[in-house]
Write a structure and sequence with these properties.
The chain has four helices and six strands. With 119 residues, the chain is α+β, with helices and mostly antiparallel strands. The chain has a single domain, classed as Aspartate Aminotransferase, domain 1 (Alpha-Beta Complex), CATH 3.90.1150.30. Strands 1-2-3-4-6-5 form a six-stranded antiparallel β-sheet. Strand 3 and strand 4 form a beta hairpin.
Length: 119
Amino acid sequence: MTREELQSELAAFPGATAEYPFDFTTRVYKVGGKIFAIMGDDAEPFKVSLKCDPDIAEELREEYPGIVVPGYHLNKRHWNTVTIDVRVADDDLRDWLAHSYDRVFGSLTRSVREQIAPL
């Protein structure tokens, strides 16, 4: 997956916004004001940090050593940093993006969730 494809995938989630709260090159994707993905615009190789269930996070780190690592400057239990690499299938990466989004979206209040995705 290219950087541009990844950005498009992240931006396509309902209510997703992209902003630069830290610096001019670190793009943060939020839903309902909460972060679900962080990626650098110019880092090579490019990486994305994603929220993850702690048990799944450990499994992914074991399955993809050196590719999926504990979140850089983030809570290591709940975040993984993924180096975008040909060894990670695009479909798997899409699943991880959705998982991150779903974890954050699910933590929002019902009223905020309903504003983003009305029933």
